[in-house]
């Protein structure tokens, strides 16, 4: 019975995955090599107020981009850690956070964030996304350095409140 609840109830599955995260599972590997994505220009996202963000315009900033969905248990499981990371860096002018709701359903995703008291801004995809960046797996997190190079890419759940990620963002932020 418990197994059925974990399998079929997204919040129960997310709770189980969060427990695994706390004991050390799902630590992201940040040793990924840097690679160029053809061009960040034209990769666009829209926020709930209708403002467009083009990744090409963010050169000189570190970009933390997370693709997620409200119905995705691994996405739900990693959200508290991402919210903690976001809270730590939200006022940092050198880092931009984009939380792209894969469904593009602003009413549902903004309500999801508000119900859980997450401060993260929700976006939806407004252009084609290169497969090197997002191939459709949820959750997917990518981090671009200040030069627009893909510095980190992880498909699946991870603990983004981990000190390695914090150090990694600070390192990217301070590099030229």
UniProtKB/TrEMBL annotation:
<dbReference type="InterPro" id="IPR013766">
    <property type="entry name" value="Thioredoxin_domain"/>
</dbReference>
<protein>
    <recommendedName>
        <fullName>Thioredoxin domain-containing protein</fullName>
    </recommendedName>
</protein>
<dbReference type="InterPro" id="IPR013740">
    <property type="entry name" value="Redoxin"/>
</dbReference>
<dbReference type="Pfam" id="PF08534">
    <property type="entry name" value="Redoxin"/>
</dbReference>
<keyword id="KW-0676">Redox-active center</keyword>
<feature type="domain" description="Thioredoxin">
    <location>
        <begin position="21"/>
        <end position="174"/>
    </location>
</feature>
<dbReference type="InterPro" id="IPR050553">
    <property type="entry name" value="Thioredoxin_ResA/DsbE_sf"/>
</dbReference>
<dbReference type="InterPro" id="IPR017937">
    <property type="entry name" value="Thioredoxin_CS"/>
</dbReference>
<dbReference type="InterPro" id="IPR036249">
    <property type="entry name" value="Thioredoxin-like_sf"/>
</dbReference>
<keyword id="KW-0201">Cytochrome c-type biogenesis</keyword>
